[in-house]
Specification:
By secondary structure, the chain is mostly helical. The protein folds into 2 domains: 32 residues; 70 residues, no CATH class. 87% of the residues lie in helices and 0% in strands. The protein is built from 4 helices and no strands. Helix 2 packs across helix 4.
Amino acid sequence: MDGIDIGLYIMYIFFFVAVGAAIVLPLINAIKSPAGLGKSLAGVAVLVVIFLISYALADGSVTARYTLMGVDESSSKLIGAGLILFYIVFVAAIIGVIFSEINKALK
């Protein structure tokens, strides 16, 4: 075995441990405090609604260059929706930071 093989196996182990922890620990926390689960689900619901709005706004047009890369109309619409979602969430985060700083300065 090379040193690279051992490193890859260790990386795989750490990756699966991290994925398992990312799935199991929030479930344990949700069982301990169901009120927090409601807030988390509300946040996910807001993101889903924003994604649906983004999907409705996205354009599914495909150019010849994209067709050569294997992009069809549905994937173009999903890519556009993802970009619009990113822009909306990014602007909301910037506004939140500005509002928070102004609010903190006025207190």
